[in-house]
């Protein structure tokens, strides 16, 4: 049997659901990562007035959760912040609630402004204060209620680009708008706050942290316990990772959450990693050199670092510390054998 007589064999095989590998080789097996995501910085001072605008003009009936997604210019359909991570800014007004739901994607929030709101996670009310990290691992019921007298703003984070890459997300409404409290408020944080003294009877029901809140007060104490002359990481200064107390691993299976303190004048070593990362400036002023971009960051800004982009952090103040909260998809890359890091001074490490 000879070759088919179709005029364009490429078109013919396309109609048969086939494609010539030789025309796609560099796309499907690139010599090095070629992320669509670009380095980008979201200016908090510029976005904050719009959060308040929508608080006043957009009802909860319309928005349900009043969130401004932080969309990477090259990741708009669907919107995402980096290839595998998402961040948004949420505002909630006094007396408002966000209805209870759960989803497969892991989520957390980092509190930026205000007090008086709590998130109820599987029946536990977890109260929110600036600098707190609140966990909502995958498939945990969660809703928000705000009993304070001024708006609150927090950073929302989800791993839905990862979940959706596998078409593995499920979503469900609770049925009632909010959950009832079934355990003492902030119980999980108080039980696990004592470091090496964790409840011995606790058994992990999931691979995620059982802690509802990692409060700023404890983060601050952890920094205070570190010697003033400690060098820390040459890339990210005095950097601490929030841990799952039952496993010693990351807080959720897909994301590692960290906070770093950059001493005055800190200038980090330039590196590049296969991780995606998002940074939130808790306070301070500095520069992130990401690829060919100079991102000048200040209080409460957010910036994205795509995979395999040259990366260098600087604290531009000569007198004040800078604090950066950040998260990456490192646990996923580590589990899959995709984690690679390069420090130019030392050559490649993996
Ligand atoms: Fe949610």
Automatic annotation (TrEMBL):
Residues 89-156 form the Cupin type-2 domain. This is Cupin domain-containing protein. CDD domains: cupin_GDO-like_C, cupin_GDO-like_N. PANTHER family: 1,2-DIOXYGENASE PROTEIN-RELATED (PTHR41517), CUPIN (PTHR41517:SF1). Pfam families: Cupin_2. GO terms for molecular function: dioxygenase activity. InterPro entries: Cupin_2 (IPR013096), GDO-like (IPR047183), RmlC-like_jellyroll (IPR014710), RmlC_Cupin_sf (IPR011051). It comes from Geodermatophilus sabuli. Keywords: Dioxygenase, Oxidoreductase. Signal peptide: none annotated.
């Amino acid at each position: 049997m000879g070759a088919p007589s179709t005029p364009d064999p490429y078109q013919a095989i396309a109609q048969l659901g086939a494609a010539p590998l030789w025309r796609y080789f560099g796309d499907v097996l690139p010599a090095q990562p070629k992320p669509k995501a670009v380095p980008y910085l979201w200016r908090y001072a510029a976005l904050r007035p719009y959060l308040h605008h929508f608080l006043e003009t957009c009802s909860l009936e319309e928005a349900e959760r009043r969130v401004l997604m932080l969309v990477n210019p090259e990741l708009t359909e669907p919107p995402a912040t980096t290839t595998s991570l998402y961040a948004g800014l949420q505002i909630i007004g006094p007396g408002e609630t966000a209805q209870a739901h759960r989803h497969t994607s892991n989520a957390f929030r980092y509190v930026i402004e205000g007090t008086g709101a709590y998130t109820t996670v599987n029946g536990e009310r977890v109260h929110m204060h600036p600098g707190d990290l609140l966990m909502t691992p995958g498939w945990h019921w969660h809703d928000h209620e705000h009993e304070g007298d001024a708006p609150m703003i927090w950073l929302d984070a989800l791993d839905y680009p990862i979940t959706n890459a596998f078409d593995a997300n499920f979503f469900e409404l609770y049925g009632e708008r909010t959950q009832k409290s079934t355990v003492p408020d902030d119980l999980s944080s108080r039980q696990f706050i004592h470091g090496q003294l964790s409840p011995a009877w606790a058994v992990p029901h999931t691979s995620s942290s059982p802690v509802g809140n990692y409060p700023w007060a404890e983060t601050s104490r952890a920094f205070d316990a570190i010697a003033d002359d400690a060098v820390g990481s040459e890339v990210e200064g005095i950097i601490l990772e929030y841990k799952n107390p039952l496993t010693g691993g990351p807080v959720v299976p897909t994301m590692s959450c960290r906070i770093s303190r950059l001493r005055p004048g800190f200038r980090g070593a330039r590196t590049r990693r296969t991780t995606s990362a998002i940074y939130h400036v808790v306070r301070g002023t500095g520069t992130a050199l990401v690829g060919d971009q100079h991102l000048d960051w200040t209080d409460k800004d957010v910036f994205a670092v795509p995979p395999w982009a040259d990366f260098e952090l600087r604290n531009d103040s000569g007198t004040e510390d800078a604090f950066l909260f950040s998260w990456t998809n490192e646990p996923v890359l580590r589990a899959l054998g995709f984690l690679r890091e390069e420090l130019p001074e030392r050559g490649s490490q993996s």
